[in-house]
Specification:
single chain; mainly alpha; Four Helix Bundle (Hemerythrin (Met), subunit A); 7 helices; globular
Length: 139
């Protein structure tokens, strides 16, 4: 099967839209973030949506390019790395993001809010980089 460019286009646009939301949400100071549960929940939800869109896109490419069958979310990114769609170091970052997604969804009561703040202030560009790697290859 071939890559469905429409799906790639839609997912990349969704990711970039979510990143814009994260950028807006990250304008709050760390102290205000740590004491504002409404903002915390908003950030966690948009972060989850962003990661889910990345995973959806990764799984689409893995399936359409016949790269293998991932056993978990980290493996979806690992297969993209193995196929040289993502650089090795970046693949490791995306695998960390996938692991974080599992914690965000399944063990949310153990979420470290300092780590969430760090992600939205220093790591959100990883999502843009993911879009760039995918777009360069498939659009």
């Amino acid at each position: 099967m071939t890559i469905d460019k429409e799906i790639v286009q839609k997912r990349t646009q969704e990711i970039l839209s979510f990143v814009r939301e994260l950028e807006t949400l990250s304008t709050i100071s760390k102290q205000d973030f740590l004491t504002n549960t409404e903002r915390q929940y908003a950030v966690m939800h948009v972060l989850q949506l962003t990661i889910e869109a990345c995973l959806s896109l990764a799984n689409h490419i893995v399936a359409r390019e016949s790269l293998g069958i991932p056993n978990n979310y980290q493996e979806s990114f690992a297969l993209l790395g193995k196929a040289r769609i993502l650089p090795d170091a970046f693949t490791e970052e995306m695998k960390k993001i996938a692991r974080f997604r599992n914690k965000l969804v399944h063990i949310y009561w153990e979420i470290d809010l300092d780590m969430i703040y760090d992600i939205i202030t220093t790591k959100k560009d990883d999502f843009k980089q993911f879009v760039q790697y995918i777009s360069e290859r498939f659009l």
